[in-house]
Every structure is written in structure tokens, then in C-alpha cells.
Design brief:
With 159 residues, this protein is mainly α. It has one domain: Lysozyme (Orthogonal Bundle). Helix 5 packs across helix 7.
């Protein structure tokens, strides 16, 4: 994934991801969310249909209209998912992410900033400071998907 280094380095201190442990946790979570930094767009199981408004997951991420599932799949460093998140973080960044959702994957600055804003809103630094991988994972993922991979990534990054 080209172009991430400069935005990552520029925004880290601004978002207070400024200690070794905070950076390690952020990178470990990002590593798993992006399939080892290979894609800023989620590999969905069902083309995003698993996020349709008629599903429990789709409702949870604020999808309202048919087609929202595939349109608002996870994108960015921490996979922003769902209409509600695209709307919320688009407003924070003053970008129309509802109309242009691919911006989150195609613009490295937006891919990084949506992740940092999400990290900040969920108070993840607090859990990272305690080096609590389960709480960091839950805050980022809403569950424990890929917990063992996240733990492994964190251990490698710490070394």
C-alpha cells in the first residue's frame, strides 16, 4: 500500500499515538484489519451483503438503504464500516464520504485519518497504555475477530 508512511508519521503525534506501546497497538490492529497491509478495502465474505440493512450487522453499523452493505464495506487502516461511520467521520474530516466512500481506501491521508479519528473517539490509547490487547481489539473490532493474529502482530511489532 503506497503512500501511507507520510500520513501515518504526520498524524501520529497529533492524535496522541505517540508512545511505543500506542504505536505498536495501532500498527498491530491495522496489520490485521488490512490483511498484513495488503488492502485498504475489506475482503468481504458475501460482497458486502452481510452488511445490508436487513442484517443484524448492517443495522449495527447504521446501514439504512438497500445497497448500503456493499457501498459501505470496511475501508481504511481500521476498516471504517457502515453508512453511519462514513457519515460521522466524513463530517469530522469535512469530506463527503457518503457520496464518495472509495475515498477512504483511495486517499492514504483519509485512510489514516479516519482510523486515527476512530481510535480517538473510542479512547483506544487508554487500553493500549495498559497493553490490554483484548480491550484494544474489542474497541477496534466490536468483538474479538482475529484476536490471535492481532496478538501475534503485536508481539512482532514490539520486538
Amino acid at each position: 500500500m503506497k503512500g501511507l508512511t507520510n500520513p501515518l508519521n504526520y498524524w501520529l503525534p497529533i492524535y496522541q499515538i505517540n508512545t511505543e506501546i500506542r504505536i505498536a497497538h495501532f500498527l498491530a490492529q491495522s496489520c490485521v484489519e488490512t490483511s498484513n497491509f495488503s488492502s485498504l478495502t475489506e475482503y468481504t465474505k458475501n460482497g458486502g451483503m452481510e452488511y445490508e440493512p436487513s442484517t443484524k450487522t448492517g443495522k449495527a453499523v447504521g446501514n439504512k438503504y438497500p445497497g448500503d452493505g456493499p457501498k459501505y464495506v470496511g475501508r481504511g487502516m481500521l476498516h471504517l464500516t457502515g453508512r453511519e461511520n462514513y457519515d460521522t467521520y466524513g463530517k469530522i474530516l469535512r469530506k463527503d464520504l457518503i457520496k464518495y466512500p472509495n475515498t477512504v481506501a483511495n486517499d492514504p491521508n483519509i485512510a489514516v485519518r479516519t482510523a486515527y479519528e476512530f481510535w480517538k473517539k473510542k479512547l483506544v490509547n487508554h487500553y493500549a497504555d495498559k497493553d490490554h490487547i483484548r480491550l484494544v481489539t474489542y474497541a477496534v473490532n466490536g468483538g474479538y475477530n482475529g484476536l490471535s493474529q492481532r496478538q501475534s502482530a503485536l508481539e512482532k511489532i514490539k520486538k
